[in-house]
Design brief:
disordered N terminus; about 0% strand; mainly alpha; Fumarate Reductase Cytochrome B subunit; about 210 residues; about 65% helix
């Protein structure tokens, strides 16, 4: 009885130890928002005339958000490896291994897409600008052949990230609406999500004691 009261108090306070903490949630959703926005910007300027001011403005915003993504990724990795809450796995076996594999691949691709973008910018003799607050000139002469290759690599990495993120989101929605477990709720903020997560059953195959 005392343990049940203690667990209920912890959940009401938001410290249920099976949900991600607030910084982890914030960094996760900021990363997702930046990735989608960066991809949409890249698609949008394809409809604009090359060299036109609107196209250049979209590209400048894209570069700025790309630099912001570097900072967010660094913070996210630091938090995950450092003081962030250790959340137990949502399941076991092949499902858990697959989920971990997707996370690892997403991190690798996110880390890889940013330098590819930077090299692409410098290879085209563009400056790195951060919301027109400051700019960093390229460290070498432009190489259009390199720019074309790196641009293709950058595009493929970004598209792969979006596809994997879409699969990741669909899996979370499947857990929420079909299996009706607490996998998605672990990453949603707010007291309503905490209460719903506490009432939801654990996912099939989840380790005991969650």
């Amino acid at each position: 009885m005392d343990q049940a009261v203690s667990d209920a108090a912890r959940i009401a306070a938001g410290d249920d130890r099976v949900r991600y903490d607030t910084p982890a949630m914030a960094l996760h959703w900021i990363t997702a928002g930046l990735v989608v926005t960066l991809w949409l910007l890249a698609q949008a300027w394809g409809f604009l005339k090359s060299g036109s001011p609107p196209r250049h403005a979209l590209q400048a915003v894209h570069i700025s958000l790309g630099l912001a993504l570097i900072l967010v990724l660094a913070m996210r990795i630091f938090w995950r490896l450092g003081p962030g809450r250790r959340v137990p796995p949502a399941g076991t076996g092949l499902i858990e291994q697959g989920a971990r594999a997707v996370h690892v691949v997403l991190y690798v691709l996110l880390i890889g897409v940013v330098p590819a973008g930077l090299v692409n910018i410098w290879a085209q003799h563009d400056k790195l600008t951060f919301f027109w607050l400051f700019s960093i000139a390229m460290p070498h002469r432009p190489d259009h052949a390199v720019a074309k290759t790196v641009d293709a690599v950058h595009w493929w990495i970004a598209t792969t990230i979006l596809i994997l993120a879409g699969v990741h989101a669909l899996a979370a929605l499947f857990h929420h609406y079909v299996l009706r477990d607490d996998v998605l709720l672990r990453m949603l903020p707010g007291p309503r999500a905490r209460r719903a997560e506490a009432a939801a059953p654990p996912p099939p195959g989840a380790p005991p004691g969650r």
